[in-house]
């Protein structure tokens, strides 16, 4: 199988793309891949470092505030689409996959024009601008939230879950000793995404002393850049401050409660591992989609939510204590997460893609 895959901008798009790529590689070791991303976002460094053939496109997203800037955006899009046609003609893919970010728009549109089967994946509960545009050009569409199926043409959308969940479910758990943690204490993990969040991190740092008297342990993952600001502060023995954790789900598997943003990939891992979570959704994302992601679980009694504007030490610690001490509430959330989780998402997506390729874009 020859595969072009595209996703860009953030880990929320890139890591699901890599999960799909790795599943195809696992099931078809002879598969060949070409990754198309942006020329200036995180994938331009990450993907080549993984040994995956990479081609950049110069594209920009639409600016909702400065409308006249979009003339350049449109010009770059048209140039990128024409370049993608040449790339597709040379690479001759069996399928083209898009996992979100504005870079996917010219890639999927060009593939559609050249009659190549296409698959797009929407990670969030609210459809992103690129996937909204691409829905009519996609052969099939995978979604992470069941509620999102109805936002796409009914003959195309399939509830696959997020492919990051499968890796999290199958990964080997860490040991507490690996992180200098006690085996007989509960663990609270605070992490605001791979890059951290300065606004929330500032509030967490200010309340660290309040955790000192608790009988549980806290691991606070700050993100690399923020860690440099606070690495020398003194904290009690039950608190660990770390800049970054590679393969975070290994630690999540031994965690009792998580405090997290509501990014789609992180949520898929939380659902797969059925970990009771207090979401603090980012208010700085398009369409307030993190709030809507979190609410999708909160409305099913499968999570708790604390908006950033309401984040205080009293509010957060009260919610943590309630989760850890109210066994009935804790188990209700855990059991509801188990009902919602999909632990073979990447495999589901592979089967859809394989059937498309075998049937030249048509599914039975």
Ranges where pLDDT stays below 50 over 5 or more residues in a row are none
Order of helices and strands: EHEHEHEHEHEEHEHEHEHEHEHEHHH
- The CA-CA distance between the termini, in Å, is 20 Å
Work out the number of β strands.
Answer: 13
Summarize the structure.
By secondary structure, this protein is of the alpha/beta class. Helices cover 43% and strands 15% of the residues.
Structure description:
- The chain is an alpha/beta fold.
- Helix content is 43%, strand content 15%.
- The chain contains 14 helices and 13 strands.
- The chain has helices at 11-27, 43-49, 70-91, 104-113, 129-134, 164-170, 198-211, 224-230, 248-252, 264-273, 289-298, 313-325, 327-340, 345-358; strands spanning 2-6, 32-38, 54-57, 95-98, 118-122, 140-143, 157-159, 187-191, 217-221, 239-242, 257-260, 277-279, 304-305.
- The strands form two sheets. It has a seven-stranded parallel beta sheet with strand order 3-2-1-4-5-6-7, sandwiched between helices. Strands 10-9-8-11-12-13 form a six-stranded parallel beta sheet, sandwiched between helices.
- β11 (257-260), α10 (264-273) and β12 form a beta-alpha-beta unit.
- α1 packs across α14 (345-358) and α3 packs across α4.
- The longest helix is centred in the first third of the chain and has 22 residues, at 70-91.
- It is globular and about 65 Å long.
- The two termini are 20 Å apart.
- The mean pLDDT is 93.
């Amino acid at each position: 199988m020859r595969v072009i895959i595209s996703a860009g901008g953030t880990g929320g798009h890139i890591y699901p793309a890599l999960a799909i790529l790795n599943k195809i590689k696992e099931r078809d070791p002879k598969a060949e891949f070409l990754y198309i991303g942006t020329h200036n976002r995180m994938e331009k460094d990450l993907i080549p470092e993984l040994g995956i053939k990479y081609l950049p496109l110069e594209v920009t997203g639409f600016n909702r505030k400065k409308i006249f800037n979009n003339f350049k955006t449109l010009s770059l899009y048209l140039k990128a689409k024409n370049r993608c046609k040449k790339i597709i003609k040379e690479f001759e893919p069996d399928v083209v996959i898009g996992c979100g970010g504005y870079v996917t728009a010219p890639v999927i549109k060009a593939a559609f024009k050249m009659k190549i089967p296409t698959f797009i994946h929407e990670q969030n509960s609210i459809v992103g601008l690129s996937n909204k545009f691409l829905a009519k050009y996609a052969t099939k569409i995978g979604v992470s939230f069941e509620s999102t199926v109805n936002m796409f043409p009914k003959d195309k959308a399939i509830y696959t879950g997020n492919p990051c969940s499968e890796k999290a479910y199958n990964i080997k758990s860490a040991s507490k000793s690996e992180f200098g943690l006690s085996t007989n204490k509960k663990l609270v993990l605070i992490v605001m995404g791979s890059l951290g969040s300065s606004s929330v991190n500032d509030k967490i740092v200010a309340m660290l002393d309040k955790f000192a008297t608790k009988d549980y342990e806290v691991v606070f993952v700050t993100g690399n850049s923020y860690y440099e600001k606070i690495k020398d502060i003194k904290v009690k023995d039950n608190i660990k401050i770390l800049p970054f954790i590679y393969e975070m789900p290994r630690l999540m598997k031994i965690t009792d409660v998580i405090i997290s943003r509501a990014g789609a990939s992180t949520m898929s891992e939380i659902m797969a591992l059925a970990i009771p979570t207090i979401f603090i959704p980012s208010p700085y994302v398009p369409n307030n989609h993190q709030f809507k992601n979190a609410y999708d679980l909160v409305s099913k009694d499968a999570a708790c939510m604390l908006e950033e504007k309401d984040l205080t030490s009293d509010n957060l610690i009260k919610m943590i204590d309630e989760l850890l001490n109210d066994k009935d509430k804790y188990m209700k959330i855990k059991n509801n997460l188990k009902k919602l989780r999909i632990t073979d998402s990447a495999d589901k997506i592979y089967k859809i893609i394989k059937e498309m390729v075998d049937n030249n874009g048509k599914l039975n």
